[in-house]
Amino acid sequence: MTCLFGCTCNQPEQLAHALAPIRSALVADPPVERWGLGYIQGGEALLSRTPRRSEHPVDFYQQLERLRSHYVMGHAAVADGLSGNVNTQPFRYRRWLFAQEGTIADISRVQDKLLDHVPGFLRRNLHGKTPAEYMFHIFLSLLHDTKSVEDPNLPLAESRRALYAAIKLTKSVLNEDGVEYNLGNITASNGRSMLAARLDKPLYMRNLMVAESSRDRTKADRDNGFRGVLLVSADTHPGEGFEEIPRESVLMVSRELRIEVAGVDS
Question: 82, CA 20 to 30 Å: which among 51, 177, 218, 266?
Answer without folding.
Answer: 177
